[in-house]
Design a protein that fits this description.
134 residues; 4 helices; elongated
Length: 134
């Protein structure tokens, strides 16, 4: 009887050997922002319930959202919303089989991040100007 020899099987590639690219990072960010939108919509629902409730409830929620921490959360939510929207547009473009080249998809990933930051800042600055400051 002969003993069968077993060779060491190669391991599957793991995340440690990959270099993170902008496209990979934006893919992860798109998933994270999608999950964050779920929690942000709960805050919006809280505001709607308070608006439908008593004046005291509405004033409390407005004071909460108007605080520094509340404004930071709302600022973050607005960036998440815009970033996820631009990521969705990027995926929609890919669905039409355009922009799938390596260089183009990398540029689109960077444009998604830069565009979301710029649009968020523009919207908040415009709101600040229209409202007349803090």
């Amino acid at each position: 009887m002969s003993k069968s020899t077993t060779q060491a099987r190669p391991l599957s590639p793991h995340l440690q050997i990959y270099r993170i690219t902008p496209t990979m990072a934006m893919s992860v960010a798109h998933r994270i922002t999608g999950a964050a939108l779920y929690f942000g919509i709960l805050l919006f629902a809280l505001w709607l319930f308070a608006a439908a409730g008593s004046k005291e409830q509405f004033d409390f929620v407005n004071a909460l959202f108007g605080s520094i921490l509340g404004r930071i959360v709302i600022f973050g939510y607005s960036w998440v919303l815009i970033h996820h929207m631009l990521g969705g547009i990027r995926h929609l473009i890919w669905d039409t089989t355009h922009g799938l080249e390596k260089h183009t998809s990398r540029q689109m990933a960077i444009a998604t991040l830069v565009g979301s930051i710029v649009l968020t800042l523009v919207i908040w600055i415009a709101a600040w100007v229209i409202r007349g400051g803090l």
